[in-house]
Amino acid sequence: MSTQQLILELTLIGSMFLITGFFLFRSYNSSDALSLKAQKILTGLLGAFLLMAGTVKFFDPFTTMFAKQIALSELPFPTLSRWAGQLGEMTAGVLLLVIMIGGRKLNTELRNKAMLASTLLTTAIMVVAVYVHLLPSVPAEVLPLQSKPPVMTLFILGLAWLNAYLYHKNK
């Protein structure tokens, strides 16, 4: 991993935390239950992370790495798979950020559908990502964090499910 790529990744992650922290601070309510506070934080961080992860895939070196992952994994319809992965991550992230920013101001039915859609999108994307990570034909050099075991992928999937659980618990 080059120094330039490391600086880019750290800048993106830092800006993600700053933006999410700002909106979390705005929605902070000291009377919220601990599980609701945790769910708000998790919703914001997951939303920002997914939006960032989908967005960076439009820029090098990430776009090249993502295209190589798809080509080497021999996913069907490679161009469609690439766009579905990127736009799916961005859509799930935006939905989560809308839930976090809109909060209780949103219609309950709309908020519930947005949470369901973001969880289903994230689950589908992460399942495909686990599959790609486990293929012997895909080297670690083209994977996120250049790590062959899908640790981060499974971690994000677990957080998405935990977030959905906390959301439904706090309804």
From TrEMBL:
Keywords: Membrane, Transmembrane, Transmembrane helix. The lineage of its organism: Bacteria, Pseudomonadati, Pseudomonadota, Gammaproteobacteria, Vibrionales. This is DoxX family protein. The chain crosses the membrane at residues 6-29, 41-59, 83-102, 114-134, 149-167.
